């Protein structure tokens, strides 16, 4: 057996509240992040991921405050992303109680920032968030997937598999792979995308985007995910949804925490 699979609720935080949409659009309120974090801690989540979806400078202070308040009350690892541009933001997040920082747009703009952060803090603190979508025709990439920024709204033309490989070579500790096509659809993870990235990198892979039922999780693990992340089905589902997901993973023969 490999390492036990982690089940991770994701909290998209906007101006201090948790929100959720479909394909990153039509956000609706899902509650107070500290209360939700508390609930997930008690319900058996292995980690939590906070993504600051607005990440403007005014909301930045709100997010630091939310991270601090959450870290005081919750004892599972906490990853925070959104607006992380370099060593300074990572330093502040770690001091406020985050265990890991997630980077996306800043790394695409300047890949050297990965080297700087991992040299400063170690690989284990840095998660590369990859928002990937299918591309066809003239815009296509070698793998058929491109990296996007701005919550999936802006294409980069960068091949998702090549980018994941470069980031892993530069020392990123983990990859959070989010399928823009599947996000919020509740129809299951993008297994093709997971398999492609898994074949290219050895670092831990967190699958995100598309989970709608407990039975969606085992196929993502079989495809190569080391951890599985979801938002809507945990926020709006029954209180024991994390247990249901873990039961489904266990029943499929995978080890869970």
**CATH architecture assignment:** Alpha-Beta Barrel
Note the main sheet.
8 strands, parallel, barrel
- Strand order, main sheet: write it out: 1-4-5-6-7-10-11-12
Count structural domains: 1
Q: Give the helix level as a range of percent.
A: 25-40%
- Cα-based radius of gyration, to the nearest Å: 17 Å
Q: What percentage of the residues does DSSP assign to strands (E)? A: 25-35%
Individual helix count: 10
Mean pLDDT: 91
The parts where pLDDT drops under 50 for at least 5 residues are none
- The CATH class is Alpha Beta
Indicate the structural class: alpha/beta
* CATH fold type: TIM Barrel
Helix and strand string, N-terminal first? EEEHEHEHEHHEEEHEHEHEHH
Query: In CATH, what is the homologous superfamily?
Result: Aldolase class I
Shape designation: globular
Overall number of strands? 12
User: What separation lies between the terminal Cα atoms?
Assistant: 13 Å
Task: Please tag this protein with its features.
single chain; 257 residues; alpha/beta; TIM Barrel; eight-stranded parallel beta barrel; 10 helices; 27% strand; globular
Structure description:
The chain is an alpha/beta fold. It has a single domain, classed as TIM Barrel (Alpha-Beta Barrel), CATH 3.20.20.70. 37% of the residues lie in helices and 27% in strands. It contains ten helices and twelve strands. The chain has helices at residues 33-43, 57-73, 87-95, 105-109, 112-121, 160-170, 191-200, 217-222, 232-235, 241-251, and strands at residues 6-14, 17-22, 25-31, 48-52, 78-81, 100-103, 126-134, 145-149, 154-159, 174-179, 205-208, 227-230. An eight-stranded parallel β-barrel has the order 1-4-5-6-7-10-11-12, surrounded by seven helices. Strand 2 (17-22) and strand 3 form a beta hairpin. The mean pLDDT is 91.
């Amino acid at each position: 057996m490999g390492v036990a699979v982690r089940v991770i609720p994701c909290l998209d935080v906007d101006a201090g509240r948790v929100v959720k949409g479909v394909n990153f659009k039509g956000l609706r309120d899902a509650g107070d992040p500290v209360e939700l974090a508390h609930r997930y801690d008690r319900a058996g989540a292995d980690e939590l991921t906070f993504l600051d979806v607005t990440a403007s400078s005014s909301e930045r202070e709100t997010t630091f405050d939310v991270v601090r308040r959450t870290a005081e009350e919750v004892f599972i690892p906490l990853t925070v992303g959104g607006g992380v541009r370099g060593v300074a933001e990572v330093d502040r997040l770690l001091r406020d109680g985050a265990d890991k920082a997630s980077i996306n747009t800043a790394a695409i703009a300047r890949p050297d920032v990965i080297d700087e952060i991992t040299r400063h803090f170690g690989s284990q603190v840095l998660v590369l968030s990859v928002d990937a979508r299918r591309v066809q025709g003239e815009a296509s990439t070698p793998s058929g997937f491109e990296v996007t920024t701005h919550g999936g709204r802006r294409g980069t033309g960068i091949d998702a598999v090549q980018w994941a490989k470069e980031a892993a070579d530069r020392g990123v500790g983990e990859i959070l792979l989010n399928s823009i096509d599947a996000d919020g659809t509740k129809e299951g993870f993008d297994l093709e995308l997971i398999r492609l990235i898994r074949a290219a990198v050895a670092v831990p892979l967190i699958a995100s985007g598309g989970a709608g039922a407990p039975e969606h999780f085992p196929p993502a693990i079989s495809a190569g995910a080391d951890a599985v992340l979801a938002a809507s089905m945990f926020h709006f589902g029954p209180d024991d949804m994390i247990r249901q997901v873990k039961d489904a993973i266990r029943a499929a023969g995978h080890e869970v925490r």
